[in-house]
Design a protein that fits this description.
Strand order of the largest sheet: 5-4-3-2-12-1-13
Order of helices and strands: HHHHHEEHEHEHHEEEHEEHEEEE
CATH superfamily of the largest domain: Metallo-dependent phosphatases
């Protein structure tokens, strides 16, 4: 079903591009154009079986080009009379704009921002004033994102020096290269209270056991529908991504049952890949950290993610004295670019007193 939906949407974008090429340039041999665009429609599927660095870059950059072409050129269609441009000129302007965005987007994808937020709580024990938590998410170590990305993340974390590191899913992706180098870099990241992770949808796509092995060798404790009380400072809850159900990997305990079993004396931090909150979990936690949306990754795709996720990006107040922070993510999926959606490592300063503010 997913592939049918994807092919329908992706195919429609290519059909739009095909029509604009025909109208603008009137090529004599339309069959060649049809074959080429047809191959590009199915190229993401072919990539699963014939992966290479060149093919991955080409396929995913083309994906960005097709999406951006539609997003930009549709305005020329809507305002054709106002712009008074012919079809060929508007096509060329669109291509120039796409090239500029791709160059800028590649630079933006490599420029990881440090985003700070403060969450204040009265639930710390007397001997604790604050805890600095670092969140990474949606790194997508893959054939494109490798050891260079891992080292950049490690260097930032060394500079920030958090008390705890949390990965909120999609640390891994299919076709990962430089596995041993990445593991070596990640395993050298040490924090006072430890490093923890949860599954994202891509952990299941990549194979749960393979993903679990990579995550744990990388120095993370994988929490799967369980909680830990850490040094009598806070309670950390890790929730499996719901994608596991598609692979007949159901949690042994429901989310609500898990929350009901947790003592409430200490601050409760939930790490859960997708930014979904069960209304029946009112009062069950103080802060949920999530990712998954990438804040759209390539503008204006964030308007699509907002249709599916109420909590799309940033800090939101939930119930009384509880919050959710949804990160834009640290890496990239698919096209190795970001446009108006800078990657980030989030620093959550958890400290005494009850209120929250953006950093």
């Amino acid at each position: 079903m997913f592939f049918l939906i994807f092919l329908s949407i992706y195919g429609s974008l290519h059909f739009y591009l095909y029509n604009k090429v025909i109208i603008s340039f009137q090529p004599k041999n339309k069959l060649i154009l049809i074959i080429l665009l047809g191959l590009m429609v199915i190229s993401p599927i072919l990539l699963r079986y014939f992966a290479s660095i060149f093919m991955s870059y080409f396929t995913y950059i083309w994906m960005a080009i097709v999406f951006l072409f539609f997003s930009i050129h549709i305005f020329f269609d809507l305002y054709k009379i106002k712009f008074t441009l012919n079809d060929k000129t508007s096509f060329i302007i669109t291509i120039v704009m796409i090239i500029v965005i791709l160059i800028y987007g590649r630079i933006e994808a490599e420029n990881i921002n440090i985003k700070e937020i403060s969450i204040k709580t009265k639930k710390f024990p007397k001997h604790i004033e604050s805890v600095k938590i670092a969140q990474i998410s949606d790194v997508h170590f893959s054939i494109i994102n490798g050891a260079k990305k891992a080292q950049k993340i490690a260097d930032i974390l060394k500079k920030v020096n958090p008390d705890m590191l949390l990965s909120t899913g999609d640390l891994i992706d299919r076709g990962m290269q430089e596995k041993s180098e990445i593991i070596k870099i990640l395993s050298q990241i040490k924090t006072k209270y430890g490093n923890y992770a949860v599954t994202g949808n891509h952990e299941f796509y990549s194979g749960l056991q393979y993903s679990k092995d990579f995550t744990e060798k990388g120095g993370f404790k994988l929490l799967r529908n369980e909680y830990l009380t850490i040094n009598n400072v806070l309670t950390l809850v890790g929730i499996d991504d719901e994608t596991g159900k598609r692979f007949n990997i159901a949690p042994s305990i429901s989310e609500i049952e898990l929350f009901n079993s947790i003592p409430k004396e200490l601050p409760i931090i939930v790490i859960k890949h997708q930014p979904k909150v069960d209304v029946s979990s009112d009062g069950a936690f103080d802060l949920q950290l999530s990712g998954h949306t990438h804040n759209g990754q390539i503008f204006p795709f964030r308007f699509i993610t907002k249709l599916f996720f109420k909590y799309n990006n940033g800090l939101y107040g939930l119930f009384q004295n509880s919050f959710i922070y949804v990160t834009a993510g640290t890496g990239t999926w698919g096209p190795p670019i970001r446009f108006l959606s800078q990657p980030e490592i989030v620093i959550i300063n958890l400290c005494k007193t009850l209120e929250a503010q953006n950093g």
